[in-house]
């Protein structure tokens, strides 16, 4: 059988084709020299190194974040791990917030120290104290990793003051999974590298797992070498789905921002609710920072019920609109009782120290639901259990 070359494509398709190829051919030795050796013509070589569909979505992601360059990864965690492996060396000292995503903390505490990285962790609950702690390490730190808003309390960080506290040479990375553009533009605030779980708002359909890193070319090139070498890549179809989703990011964020405020205000006014953590509410401890940094507050709301863990479970069980599931940024509304999901292995003392009572619930609004339906559903479940009609309602 002779080798079969792809059919000539139409050249006037508005959308680019999706490339699914494990490798790329060269016509002859000159083509290898031009495409591979001196790179005077664009050409692929092998599927782990590049793919035109990645390149297209990476360009769009750079435009979105105002970055020089971007890379897509197999997951948000793959983007984080690749960044830290690429940017850190044995002996480097790093800082991260105690409220960072659990698996990112695991990377800092259980993986990076194996390679000689020294880790300092401080809470961002008190934003001033965090800055003081970081400032006290000035001259010693190589990298500060931030995440905002944090989960479940939606704490924020005064990023510009962190930059001022550490000086211009420290690398600032920031996990912006909860606050993608247009809600927050991390790179405009002194951040060097913004990281995303694209599984969340960026892809926005709950149907892919992917990650993104965006920043200066010089940093991204370091990450690229690690991605090329270790292979945490997406396939062409996943890159296509991400690229397609970016068309609606602004619309989706506008919708969940509006839904978030409405549902958060409803919850704040409900007698069964002890407190609500939502950056758009004046009652949020970091409301002022939210006004300074965020253009919208997203669709994730954490609230504490004036109820036991069992009663809280009854409320969640009675809900008909949300799926009981861990994620956010999807079309569907999702809900998780924090002490049954993320913190199910924590002792009472540990829960007290991180400020997560057993009546804590995280609600991630989905743009395919109507806000009136969500509020009605929450109201019936809360009122039922509050009235004592629920099986174990006691106090
Ligand atoms: N960062 C945050 C804030 C997250 O919530 C998650 C996942 O839940 C990640 C990073 C990791 O992303 P992924 O699940 O795409 O690996």
Automatic annotation (TrEMBL):
Family: Belongs to the trans-sulfuration enzymes family.
SUPFAM superfamilies per the UniProt record, alphabetical: PLP-dependent transferases
Keywords, alphabetical: Plasmid, Pyridoxal phosphate
Source domain of life: Bacteria
Pfam family of the protein (one): Cys_Met_Meta_PP
Record PANTHER family: CYSTATHIONINE GAMMA-SYNTHASE, CYSTATHIONINE GAMMA-SYNTHASE 1, CHLOROPLASTIC-RELATED
Record lineage: Bacteria, Bacillati, Actinomycetota, Actinomycetes, Kitasatosporales
Species this chain originates from: Streptomyces incarnatus
Cofactor(s) named in the record: pyridoxal 5'-phosphate
Record protein name field: Cystathionine gamma-synthase
